[in-house]
UniProtKB/TrEMBL annotation:
GO BP annotations listed: fatty acid beta-oxidation
PROSITE patterns: ENOYL_COA_HYDRATASE
Organism: Candidatus Thalassospirochaeta sargassi
Molecular function as annotated in GO: hydro-lyase activity
Keyword Aminoacyl-tRNA synthetase belongs to the record: no
Protein name: Enoyl-CoA hydratase-related protein
Amino acid sequence: MELINVKYKVKDFTAYVTINRPKALNALNIDVIAELKTVFEHIEADDGVTGVILTGEGEKAFVAGADIAQMKDMTALESRAMAAAAHKVMNSIEECSKPVIAAINGFALGGGCELAMACDIRIASETARMGQPEVNLGIIPGFGGTQRLPRLVGKGMAKYLILTAGMIDAAEAYRIGLVQKVAAPSELIAECEKVLAAINQKGPFAVKLAKKAINNGLEADQKSALNNEIELFSLTFATDEQEEGMAAFLEKRAADFKSKK
Ligand code: DAK
């Protein structure tokens, strides 16, 4: 993988993906989006990765939005191509078979907030600031914000944030359910690792199916979503994981899912 704008490393089965344009507050340009695509394709195919932490380089920003300098002179058709490419990447993160945690280490604005929302879980540094300031620029959110934000915080709060272009701090993001935890800046990555470690102790197939059931369900009407849950739930009974998890409970011992893989 040739990467310039994104850093990638794997340690202890965790992939660390870091957007690396600190001079532009890690703004998303076409190259970053292309590199994220490559990285997430790689993660999906790599059995040596069981979880992902996505963050921004430096102490100031997760991602301060799409790159305004690059967008300024785009034609409508160019902006459409960019949106299509970015949506594919956001979807591949949302649908990744491994849990993805956004470590929000500073500004997460516009496309940055949208990138964080495509992740499964968001953990913010106390210094994080989040928002969808697009209407300040005469545009609307274009990387999924009009759809993922109301699904996370409700229609009223999403309209409030998008229409006012307001920026909120980590405490407020936590209060409205936009982030699931807040950590001291120095503890941010460790906190994400702790959450991934907790998930990794569970049955990996069950974790994957639970994520799928939630994602599928939110795209469907309730009846179809519940039917989908029945199918995925019953599938877990075809696995060694279910046998091991239930046997371990009844034998009053910790489940050992790893040896059942
Ligand atoms: N794009 C490009 N450069 C950026 C940037 C951005 N989004 N944000 C910051 N920078 C650059 C600044 O220009 C500055 O560069 P130099 O002047 O040093 O060369 C450097 O990063 C440091 O920024 P500041 O000097 O402004 O730092 P401050 O601490 O004073 O302020 C700030 C931090 C985050 C409050 C401020 O930088 C800021 O307001 N940034 C812009 C936030 C923003 O509006 N983001 C864009 C939201 S709109 C699309 C789909 C989706 C989108 C667009 C198109 N299509 C399908 C085409 C999404 C759009 C958005 O994300």
